[in-house]
Amino acid sequence: MKVLHFGAGNIGRGFIGLILYKSGYEVVFADVVEDLVKRLNEEKGYSVHILGTEVSTEDVENVRGVMLNSDECIDEVETSDLITTAVGVNHLGGVAKILAEGIRRMMTKGRCSPLNIMACENALYATDTLKGMVMELLNEGEKEYAEKFIGFANVAVDRIAPNFRTSDMGPLDAVVEKFFEWDIERGNLKTDLSIDGAAIVDRLSPYLERKLFLLNGAHAVTAYMGYLKGHKTIDEAISDKEILSVVKKAQEEMAYGLAQRHDAFTLDELKEYSGRIIDRFRNRFLQDEVTRVGRDPMRKLSPNDRLITPLMQCVEIGELPEALIKGIAAALRFDYEGDGQAVEMQRIIRERGVAGAVEEICGIPKDSPITDKIVVEYNRLVK
């Protein structure tokens, strides 16, 4: 069995690549960084350093790499049994072009064996997004072929991969936390999958939202509050009693909204899950920088992402999530000069004001009472 994985970063190598290698797949990475692809082909393997209460190491062997925008990459699509991505949802368009051409070649050569595709991104229903992009590039006959033989399965993935290195690590080595979650929606799979540690579920939406809100949303609030208070890492920030209180309260607010929407979890189960997340944030080995977790704030503040979606869910059921609003206000204060989106967001705030920025970035009307609450919290926060 062969998997083609798009994106050879820490998540690609340390999470997806490791799990699929352990599940018996030959792993091929596609990436846009030429030096990285070259090194993969030279080294043919790497180590993954797993940070729990202790540090352990697992090796991944017999890997290779191809340039993402190459004819060779299209050939790999054509002959793969599984395709996964971890490129960031904003870069799925480039992947879609390669997939469309690969599907076209599969059809031309008469391939009748199924292919499953999963976008392992920090976004809701990222595989649906990718499928839509691919289908736009196919003609009617090619679409019929894709619907018959290509399975586009949504997933929820969860594993922290910090930018943490020591002098004895190899150049391709990756670092991840011990905990991971990989939930795969059964309905759109074209074949059965057996992936070590992954769960095949009938209905993915509760798992996606639980992870995106209670992990990614809480992670973002921790990072933005920590940045404002001068903390460098997530474990340092969550040790701040004020920040811990805001993050836990935001999780409670989001959990209440989730429990009203889904019957897959009880409120007590969501609270227990939230507590495990906080324990993960305390992992001192991760040394996860708040500027890394807070990067791309405009994406994280967009209408369908980890902060605004749970906010609006709470509002819809008549709740005012004050801690979550404080976290959103802190995100708007994120002015890290090393992040392009942070710089752009601050420009928008200067030109349009906070209310105008909330309208443009978050999709909430500037004259909304919710925007008023965000502006009040923004003005209370000082760096």
From TrEMBL:
EC numbers for this chain: 1.1.1.17
NAD recorded as keyword: yes
Segments forming domain Mannitol dehydrogenase N-terminal: 1-192
GO biological process: mannitol catabolic process
GO cellular component, one term: cytosol
Alphabetical list of PROSITE patterns matching this protein: MANNITOL_DHGENASE (PS00974)
Catalytic reaction annotation: D-mannitol 1-phosphate + NAD(+) = beta-D-fructose 6-phosphate + NADH + H(+)
InterPro entries assigned: 6-PGluconate_DH-like_C_sf, 6PGD_dom2, Mannitol_1_phos_5_DH, Mannitol_DH, Mannitol_DH_C, Mannitol_DH_CS, Mannitol_DH_N, NAD(P)-bd_dom_sf
Binding site for NAD(+): 3-14
Protein name in the entry: Mannitol-1-phosphate 5-dehydrogenase
Organism whose genome encodes this protein: Calorimonas adulescens
